[in-house]
Amino acid sequence: MKKIIFGLLVTVSLQSSAQDATADFKKLQRLEGTWSMQTKRGITYESWAKINDSLLAGKSYRLINTMDTLLLEEVQLVRKGSNIFYIPVVQGQNDLLPVTFKLISTEKDVFVFDNPEHDFPQKINYELPKNDNLHAWIEGMDKGSYRKSDFYYKKVK
Length: 157
Prior knowledge:
This protein is an alpha+beta fold. Helices cover 17% and strands 55% of the residues. A ten-stranded antiparallel beta barrel has the order 1-2-3-4-5-6-7-8-9-10. A hairpin with a 2-residue loop joins strand 4 (69-80) and strand 5 (83-90).
């Protein structure tokens, strides 16, 4: 009897986690569109597109002048079962191999993706858009010191 009750509890727990991941992934779809941020090096853009109910594809690029674009990174937001992963491929880093960050928190519409084994950053954070504003930041230890970089975007389209 104890095995049956335990089995039911595990099943209910897994279904609840999968439902949470589905709801969280729907919230992340608010990233869809193109966002821009003025930097010292030019205008940086981040674009997101919904591919299907479990995949968002993103890319970050910089407009060098009115004609040239520099790709900075490509990203996939993937829902697999009860988990969501942020998987970037950054130009000039990690031999162009993807690095996986797992969603660990969604408090107050701030989505925190974590990979404690990565050199820097260990956390990638997205605060869901408010009034066409998007705040993202990366943080973690870098060569023995804590470092954080903020990115403030405005919705373009």
